[in-house]
Amino acid sequence: MRILVTGGLGFIGSNFIRYVLARNEEIQVINIDSMSYGANPSNLVDLESFKRYRFVKGDAADRGTLEPFFNDLDAVVNFAAETHVDRSIVVPSPFLYSNVYGTFALLEMARKHDIRGFVQVSTDEVYGAANDASYTEEDRLNPSNPYAASKAAADMFVLSYWKTYGLRSIISRSTNNFGPYQFPEKLIPKVIIRAIRNLPVPLYGTGKNIRDWLYVIDHCEALDLILNKGREGEIYNVSAGNEFSNLEVASSILAFIGKSPKLIALVQDRPGHDFRYSLNSSKIRREMGWSPRHAFDQALAKTVEWYLKNESWWSPLATDDVLDPTPWTKTFN
Ligand SMILES: NC(=O)c1ccc[n+]([C@@H]2O[C@H](COP(=O)([O-])OP(=O)(O)OC[C@H]3O[C@@H](n4cnc5c(N)ncnc54)[C@H](O)[C@@H]3O)[C@@H](O)[C@H]2O)c1
Description:
Strand content: 15-25%
Helix content: 25-40%
Distance between the termini: 45 Å
Bound molecules: nicotinamide-adenine-dinucleotide
Shape: globular
Number of helices: 11
């Protein structure tokens, strides 16, 4: 099986490539990544001379770049995206470009070449805030920020290509991921790195916003199942049921590192900040027998350990700008 992975130098994409190559000796991966600021070639440095892996620096929104790789291709797994909500509040246009136009370009190429499978890696953010409920795949989309809106728009294009052209596509929507190789601007690595540096650990608003955390390897396993066993035209929510407030997550990290909870500093909330995300993932569990293999506390401890051991990976990335306590307050230039 030959698959095209886009955005494979990012956090989840790089974990996914390593996961599928190790699990399936028949699989070949072409990774197209534009190497935007969140990409990191060192994420897959161990695969550079691996026969079943090929990296191509290129823009997934550019059909000319994509064309040569669509011959003899079995499937596309589309991770390529701008992914930081705070940045989408300051400058939304790259989100429209990579997340919507990029998905459109890939769909067009998949349609032209009659590709057998197309997995769109989407997010719980498309449903918007969950008050008391846990959203199912049938619930309406109600995005609250430009990142979420761009992902929702991409999902709509994917569904339309299934309905209009019969393109064999599947959408996965997962909750917040954590684990090794996550860029330091995201909550968990930012808390770990600022704590290691004895810097205040900023939490937005009251710190009580709730996210449902999914260990990245559990997500990779779900995506691999979706790619191989998912039903065309379907959406699958992926969640582990680890709902914790940001305050709880930051406190656990500080305890693992042996730092005082007094490092936590509440800062001004960002606009459009959804209070809680929550997904009902009974469909993937029922249809594919998926369930998360990693307990939250152990996976979080493993993640903290990984950052403690891999300072050389994150240190060049963890600039003052990237660790900014309130990046969404930056002005548009
Ligand atoms: N991180 C999460 O918690 C989470 C949760 C649910 C869904 N997702 C989705 O999973 C996917 C991957 O997320 P991530 O956290 O690994 O993000 P990331 O920011 O770490 O990686 C994204 C990668 O996409 C690449 N990219 C961006 N625009 C591109 C373009 N036009 N052409 C080619 N490559 C491009 C970047 O260079 C980067 O390597 C995204 O689609 C995201 O919406 C993420």
